[in-house]
Amino acid sequence: MFARNRWYTLYAGRIVCMSWALALLPAVLLSGYFLGGERWLVILAFTCPMALLLLRLADPTRGVGQGLRDDRTGLLLQPGFDTALAEVWGQTHAGGQKSACFLVEIDDADDLMARHGQAALDQIAQSTADRILSALRDADHVARLGDARFAICLSPMQQLDLERGLQISGRLQAVLEEPVILDGLTVYVSCSVGFCLRNRAPGADWRSWLAASQLALAQARQNGPSSIRAYTPEMQARHDVETSLRSDVMQALEDQAFQAWFQPQINTDTGRVSGFEALARWPDAARGPVTPDQFLPAIAEQGQMPRLTRMILRQALQALVCWDNSGHDVPSVAVNLSPQDLMDPALPDTIAWELERFDLAPERLCLEVLETVVADAPSDITVRNLTRLHDLGCAIDLDDFGTGHASIAALKRFPVTRIKIDRSFVVKCDQDRDQQRLISALLTMAERLELETLAEGVETAGEHALLAQLGCGHVQGFGIARPMPVEETGAWLEQHHAKLAAPPQIKRRTG
User: Fold this and answer.
1) Residue 204 gets which letter from DSSP?
2) Domain limits of the chain?
3) Three-class SS string for 321-368?
4) CA-closest candidate to residue 305, choices 349, 263, 275, 335
5) 219 or 67: whose pLDDT is higher?
6) Which fold does the domain 67-231 belong to in CATH?
7) What would the pLDDT profile of 412-452 be if each residue is shown by its tens digit?
8) I need a surface site. Which of 137, 239, 249, 484 has the fewest CB within 10 A?
């Protein structure tokens, strides 16, 4: 705050001096004419404006009028910060001193603006700027790079290592995360920090230094609110891999290289297959099998999830037709819908058209929706789409149930057919009494709401047996079968049917 006030004081002083000089200019010219005649008048007419121009050029606050400083906070803007960063880069290179570049971003700034408005966000930014300046030295360079992002370049110093950088980051977080008062309302904010030490910058100029700090901030933001990350060479290598993967994912979508693999779901009463879940897989020729947790975020980031869903939907419906033609009894197939899919107003029409194209009844398609979609106050479009799909005849599964805090009222509001109990409740349920109580409570609630149940992540025969005893209607997991290409499902179905048809073996007692 003191640094910003000092800057304003200096700027105001320059303005006052310039104003007095302009006010006295006519008097100076007249005095010159009376004392020295026309010759002195001509000389003063040229020299006085030149003197004022030189004074203006020498003004250290001259950048204000050229947009180098933020009008609200008085901090540098991007061009001014770039200049400061380049200067510190050169100084530390020539003198062997040390520095660091920090980027600080207020978490969930969009939510803050939606909740309190742009004026409130500006007030938070003003408070943030004052607090940053109070935590740093007067010689350090501070900039505002956006509504919620700030940049800091430390002036050169003799001692600065990773531990000191983390301490500075923690001090910044501590002062910035103090509550802010907005029109009598107390608002709590958090911030993420990414930084790069000057001696760890990966390139040969200040641009690589700034880019490394940006990468560290991105990593901090990915790891949740109020995180701190320091740039490392491994971070750059991981970023390069992710960038390459992102490009290859987009090409794989163009080439329709993603495949639907199928994992069976078993009815616990009869032991028969009640359906298959279609899961997206990417057998990349160069990388080998790429796991969904690697490619799905890249697709979602590009807003291409609906495109992948349509690809998997067509393959799933085609698999149903294939099983029917082969004489296999597969009642339904389940396809996952992403939040992006549910925001498409044309989704019900698209699914209806695909079902008609393959001549399949809507009842044979189950659509899985994450519980978080229901728990997070979904949009009217999402509600409308789920209702229309249910009216069409499709079943609606609520996936990962128990992890998204969906209320009973939300379950009643949405046309849910079945809940899928998350694997976190299933693991070791045959050994853990607490797990058994949780599952029993979920099954009782589902029964009262007249909802079917399916437990996912079943990995052992003990878990399978206990879930059947507790009354869970369906099970799915590695303990039954791993996801497999459609070409392998026929043989698995035949083996499973033969296992059910074979009479139990009763051993004779000897002796």
Assistant:
1) S
2) 2-62, 67-231, 244-497
3) HHHHHCCCCCCCEEEEECHHHHCCCCHHHHHHHHHHHCCCCHHHEEEE
4) 335
5) 219
6) Alpha-Beta Plaits (3.30.70)
7) 778 899 999 988 889 888 888 888 999 999 999 999 889 99
8) 137
